[in-house]
Amino acid sequence: MRAEAGISKTKVNNPSRIKVWQMFDRIARRYDLLNRLLSFRQDIRWRRCMTAFLPKRDGLNVLDVATGTADQIIALHETAGSKISSSTGVDMADQMLNLGRKKVLKNFPNDKINLKSGNAIMLPFSDEQFDVVTMAFGIRNVTDVNRALQEMFRVLKPAGRLLVLEFSLPQNYVVKNLYLFYFRYILPLLGALISGDNYAYRYLNKTVESFPYGQEFVNMIQNAGFTHSQVFPLSFGIASIYCGEKN
C-alpha cells in the first residue's frame, strides 16, 4: 500500500499531555465498552491486523507501550501466540493496568505476559531488549513524540521492528467528512453519556485531528533512526499501521 500524505503541522511536544493518564484512569471502567461501541468493533479488527506485521520468526520478545487494558497484547497472543515467547505492557494509568491484568489472567493464565507501570518517554528497560515494540492508539498522547520514538528504538534489538497503530484521516472527501462529523459531534456525546466524563471524548477527536499522520509521521519514525518505514491505511484511512525497522 502507498504512504498517505500527512497535512497536520501541530507541535508534537505537548505539555497538555502531561497528566492525560489521569483521564484514562477516570474512564477505565468503561474504556473497553466504549472502544467497541464507538468504533463499531473495528478496534478489535485493527489490533488483530498488527499480527500480520510481526517479524517472520518465532521466540519473539514483545513490548507494548501505552498498553492500557492490554487489548493489543491480548490480540497478539490470540492470533500469533505461538510466535511470542514473552510480552510486556507498560502504561502510566494504574486503573487501566489493573483491568488489563484481570483480562490477561482470565484469557492467558499460563502465558508470559507482564504488565507494569512505565512512561513511553523513559522506558524502564535496558538497551536492545525486545524483538518487537507495539503501540496502539497511544503515540498521540505522549508529551514528547520524538523522544518516545527514540526510546522505542533504543530498547529494540538489531533487526527489531516497531509497529504503531493510530487514528488517521481518510483521503476520500466524502468518507473524511462523514468521519469528521461523527468524530466531532456524535462520538463526544455518546462517550460523555456512557463514561460520565465530558472531557475525555472531546479530547479524543481534537488529538486525532491535530496529530501528524501518513507520510508526515513516517518521516518522524525515520528521524528516530528507523529504516524501511511505511504506513498501511486501514478502513479507508480511518486508522493506520506504521512500521519501522532497526538495522
Question: Describe it for me?
Answer:
There is one protein chain. This protein has helices at 20-26, 28-38, 42-49, 71-80, 94-107, 145-155, 173-195, 200-210, 215-223, and strands at residues 60-65, 84-91, 113-117, 130-136, 156-167, 227-234, 239-245. With 247 residues, the chain is an alpha/beta fold. A seven-stranded mixed sheet has the order 3-2-1-4-5-7-6, with helices on both faces. The chain is globular. Residues 1-11 have low confidence and may be disordered.
Task: Write out key terms for the chains shown.
alpha/beta, Rossmann fold, 9 helices, seven-stranded mixed beta sheet, 247 residues
Can you describe this structure in just a few lines?
By secondary structure, the chain is α/β, with parallel strands linked by helices. It has nine helices and seven strands; from the N terminus they run αααβαβαββαβαααββ. It has one domain (15-177, 210-245): Rossmann fold.
What Rg, in angstroms, do the CA atoms define?
17 Å
Head-to-tail CA distance between termini: 22 Å
Report strand %. 15-25%
CATH C-level category: Alpha Beta
Question: CATH superfamily, called what?
Answer: Vaccinia Virus protein VP39
Count of discrete domains: 1
Number of strands: 7
CATH hierarchy: architecture: 3-Layer(aba) Sandwich
Write the layout of secondary structure elements.
Elements: H1 20-26, H2 28-38, H3 42-49, E1 60-65, H4 71-80, E2 84-91, H5 94-107, E3 113-117, E4 130-136, H6 145-155, E5 156-167, H7 173-195, H8 200-210, H9 215-223, E6 227-234, E7 239-245
Parallel strand pairs: 1-2, 1-4, 2-3, 4-5
Antiparallel strand pairs: 5-7, 6-7
Helix pairs in contact: 2-7, 7-8
